[in-house]
Write a structure and sequence with these properties.
Blueprint: H1 3-16, H2 23-39, H3 47-61, H4 69-72, H5 74-104, E1 113-115, E2 118-120
Antiparallel strand pairs: 1-2
Helix pairs in contact: 1-5, 2-5, 3-5
C-alpha cells in the first residue's frame, strides 16, 4: 500500500466519523482551534490530545519510521496507518469540543437581555 492507499484509508476513516457537527465544519475548525488552544484563547483546550495528534501527523509524514516498509512490507505500513487514524481522530474530537464551546458563547454584540429569543434594549 503506497501513499495513495494510506491517504484513502485515512480519508475513509474521517468520512465515517460521526459527530454533533458536520465533518466539513470539524475539518475547517482544526486550524482555528489549534490557534486558540496554543495562544490561550481556548482555556479548556486538551493540549495533550492536540500535541499527540500533531505529533502523530508529523510522524506519518516524516522520513523516519519505527517499522520501515522496506523491511516489513505491508506490516510496516500498519503503524503509519494506525497512527494517522488515531491522530486524525484526536484532532477531530478536539475540534468537536472546540465547536461546542464556541457555540455556547453568547454573541458579544447583543445589547440587553435575551428572553426566549427577544432582545430587550435598556435605553
Amino acid at each position: 500500500m503506497g501513499m495513495f492507499g494510506r491517504a484513502t484509508t485515512v480519508a475513509g476513516a474521517v468520512r465515517a466519523s460521526r459527530g454533533r457537527h458536520p465533518l466539513g465544519q470539524r475539518l475547517a475548525a482544526v486550524l482555528p482551534m489549534l490557534r486558540d488552544a496554543f495562544t490561550g484563547r481556548w482555556a479548556g483546550a486538551p493540549r495533550g490530545r492536540l500535541v499527540a495528534g500533531l505529533a502523530g501527523l508529523v510522524y506519518v509524514v516524516s522520513p523516519l519510521d519505527i517499522l520501515p516498509e522496506a523491511l516489513l512490507g505491508p506490516f510496516g505500513l500498519g503503524d503509519d496507518l494506525a497512527i494517522a487514524v488515531v491522530a486524525v481522530a484526536a484532532l477531530l474530537s478536539a475540534a468537536e469540543d472546540w465547536l461546542d464551546g464556541r457555540d455556547a458563547v453568547p454573541a458579544a454584540d447583543q445589547a440587553g437581555d435575551v428572553i426566549t429569543g427577544v432582545v430587550l434594549d435598556r435605553h
